[in-house]
Amino acid sequence: MYDPGRFIFPMRFSMWAWKVCGFFNAPVPKSVAYRVYCYAFYSCIMAVYLFVLLLNVFVPQPFEQRVFFIMYIFLTETAMILKTLTIYRHFNIVWSLYETTLGVSFQPRDEQERELQQRRLAVFNRWYYAYIFVSHMAAFGTGSHLLSAEYRMPFFPWFFGVPYGEDAHVAYYTIFAYQSFGMYFHMLLNTAGDTQLCYMMHMIGIQLELLGKRFRDLNNSEEFDRSFVPLVQHYNKIHRMLCRVQNLFSPAYFVQFSVSGLVICASAYQVASMLNLNDFSKLMNVFYMMSMTMQIGLPCYYGNEVTLKSYALTNAIYSSRWYNMPQSNRKSVQMFLVRTNKPFAVAAFGYFNFNLPAFTTVMQTGKNKKGKVQLTLNTYFIHVRCRF
Questions:
Q1: Against a cut of 0.85, is the pTM above it?
Q2: Rounded to whole angstroms, how far apart are CA atoms 324 and 322?
Q3: Which of 118, 164, 308, 323 is the most exposed place for a label (fewest CB within 10 A)?
Q4: Contact partners, residue 377, CB within 8 Å, separation at least 6
Q5: For residue 384, which phi and psi values (nearest 5 degrees)?
Q6: Tally of CB atoms within 10 A around 342
C-alpha cells in the first residue's frame, strides 16, 4: 500500500521531493502527463544541467573559481546522483524497509514504549528541520547574486557560450533562473536521500532500545518461556534490516564520505578568506558548509546510536532476572549474550563505520586539506603578482 500519509513529516517531504523530481518509482499507474513531465525533468534539469556543470571544469577560468565554484559542487552532485539512483533503482526494497518500520513487530507494546518512541522521533524531526533549513538557505542564498553589479551566475559561469551581462539582461536572468531552480531540485534529492538512511538507522536504534526494555522486564521463567524466543526473532529481524540498509546505501555513502573532506574544506576556506559582511552572497557559503557538515554528521550520529544501543542491549539482557530461572533458561541467555557481544555497526563498503569517530576523522581530514589548499592558492597568487 503506497500511502505516504502514514509516515512522519520528514519522510512525507522526502517522498514529495521524489514525486516533484520524477523519481518516485512506486509500481503504481502513472498518467501520461506525469510521464512526460518526468522525461522533461530528466533531460532538462538532470542531463543538461549536469553536462554543463561538467563542461565548466574544462572551460578556461581563474584557478580559484575552478576549485571553489566548480569542483566541489561537481563532487557534491556526484554523491547526489549515486544516492538518487540507488533509491530509484531499488525503490521496492526501500519501500519494504519503510513497511517494516510501520509493521506490527516494530510498534510499541505499552504506553511507556510509545512515549519513548515519540520522544526519539521528536528529536529526529528537530534535527531534520535544522538540516532542511540550512540546505534551503544555501540554495536560496544564490538569489543574493542579483544584488551584485557584476552579473555573476550562482553556480557555473559558462553556459554553451551564451553571452550574458549588462548588454544581455534576458539571457542573464534566464540562465540565472535555470541554475537556481536546477540546484534547488538537486538539493531536494540530496536531502531526501540523506533522510532515508538516517530514518532507517534511527528506527533500528529505537527498536534496539525497546528490545532492551523488554528483556529487562523478564522476571520469571513463565515470562521467559513466553517471550524469549519472540524477542530473539525480533532481534534477528532488526539485524536483517540493518544488513539490507547497509548493502543498499553503502556505495553512495562511501563516495559521499570520500569527497566530504575536500568539499567542507573548500567551503570553509571561502568562508574564512572571502567573507564580507557587505556581500550577502557569501552567506551562501556559510549555509552550504553547515549543510555539508550535517550531511555527513547526521548519518554518523545515528549510526553511532545504533552501535551504542546495541552495546546497551547486552547489558539489558544481563540485567534481567536470569538468576531466578531454571538452568536451561540461563544457558539460553548465556548463548544469546555471546551473540550480542558483537555490536551492530553500519559500514560503508567495509571501509569505515558510521559513527562519531568517522565524522571527526573526516572533519580532521578537511582541516588538513584546508591548509594544503590554502598553501597552493597562496603560491598561485604570489606567482601571479610576480608576473604583473
A1: yes
A2: 5
A3: 323
A4: 63, 64, 67, 269
A5: -65, -40
A6: 9
Share of the chain above pLDDT 90, in %: 39
Q: What is the model's pLDDT at position 172? A: 92
Separation between Cα atoms, residue 6 and residue 107, nearest integer Å: 13
Burial per residue of 118-144, b for 16 or more beta-carbon CB atoms within 10 angstroms, e otherwise? eebbeebeebbeebbebbbbbbebbee
Coil, helix or strand at residue 267: helix
Decide if 348 contacts 254 (C-beta within 8 A).
yes
Q: Name the one residue in this structure whose C-alpha cell is 543498499.
A: 248
CA distance 279 to 152: 13
Residues in the chain: 388
Measured from the Cβ of residue 354, the count of other Cβ atoms closer than 10 Å reads 29
Q: What are residue 130's phi and psi, to 5 degrees?
A: -65, -45
- DSSP codes, 97-133: HHHHHTSGGGS-SSHHHHHHHHHHHHHHHHHHHHHHH
Distance CA 72, CA 187 (A): 14
| Span 179-207, average pLDDT | 93
Number of other CB atoms surrounding residue 328 within 10 Å: 10
The values of phi and psi at residue 348, to 5°, are -105, 105
Q: Within a 10 A sphere around the Cβ of 362, how many other Cβ atoms?
A: 22
Phi-psi region of 345 (alpha: psi -120 to 50; beta: other; left: phi over 0): beta
Cβ within 8 Å of residue 270, ≥6 positions away = 68, 282, 285
pLDDT score recorded for residue 67 = 63
Residue 27's pLDDT band, with cuts at 50, 70 and 90, is: confident
Question: Contacts by 148-152 with C-beta closer than 8 Å and gap 24+?
Answer: 148/279, 148/281, 152/281
* Residue matched to cell numbers 509516515: 7
Contact by Cβ (8 Å): 352, 300? no
